[in-house]
Amino acid sequence: MHKKQPSFLLILTIVFSRENSIFLPAKILFSYYEKPSPDGNGFLTLFCYFRGKFMVNSVKKATDILQILSNNPGTCLTLGSISQLSGINESTCAHIVNSLCETFFIERVSRKEGYRLGPWAYMLSRKERYQEALIKISEPILTWLHEQLNVTVFLDVICNGRKFVLFYIDDEHRLLNSGDSIIQGKMETTASGLLHMAYMDKEDLRKVLSREINCSDTAQTVLPYSDLDLTLLKIRSTGYIHVENNILHEQSFAFKVSDGFRNIAAIGVVYSNAIENPEFHKKVMKLGKQASAEISRRLPFAR
Questions:
Q1: Tell me: the pLDDT tens digits for 209-238?
Q2: What are the DSSP calls for 84-145, one per residue?
Q3: Which domains does the chain have, with CATH numbers?
Q4: Which positions ≥6 away from 302 have C-beta within 8 Å?
Q5: Other residues' Cβ atoms within 10 Å of the Cβ of residue 256
Q6: For 7, which DSSP code?
Q7: Which among 31, 256, 259, 294 is most buried, taking Cβ atoms within 10 Å?
């Protein structure tokens, strides 16, 4: 004989999903519990049915959103546009888009411009690199910069509040977790991170500063926030920054790459204190500025 479920479970059940909340009165559940299910657990069967249905719907909506963005490569779409094109209500659309941003399948460019495909969407197929056009125009210039200086050079961008290395030459292995990965850590501990922060809007900057990241500060030099404001102001006026890390015993530079309207990327140069001297310092400054100016000049022709 089929054994009924405990009576307290029959009062009501609320089934939660990320985008839906459904209330099932006791009367409906009671009639369902009276009927045995193949596994002898009517409640579990009902719960799994609704939960599975919502998960499938969510996955379908997520793939619809990704397809819409992939049909517009390199183009930013606002949340309203994505909602309209996908036929998904804006509230639900916002939940799904936020989840896809957290996993870097979508990138939030800015509040005004909206969203575009993120790095991991490109990594799925390995067919095209994330921001391929920017890499193509930057690679020969960074190769030239490396040949002139014989130090670590790289190009990184900001994706959803984190640094992402697009291209690098790192014979000395000074970059941690580089190459097709988000660089973890506090942004204010690196030259390129500080440069990106200087050009963020207030909301994005607040998120970066308030975000707690599990990283070791033993090899980092964190600027006090009282000095940070002055540092960011100086970066905005000069377009570059130099940071000396006495813990890692290295020098690092970052140079702004701009499309004429906003900061697009940062050129990074990192090398050991052992080769630092006034003459070499000036050389890095001069060539770094030349490289950033040349990439910025070529940006309008990127395809």
A1: 887 444 444 445 555 455 888 999 999 999
A2: HHHT--HHHHHHHHHHHHHTTSEEEEETTTEEEE-HHHHHHH-SS-TTHHHHHHHHHHHHHH
A3: 7-122 (1.10.10.10), 130-301 (3.30.450.40)
A4: 133, 134, 136, 137
A5: 25
A6: G
A7: 256
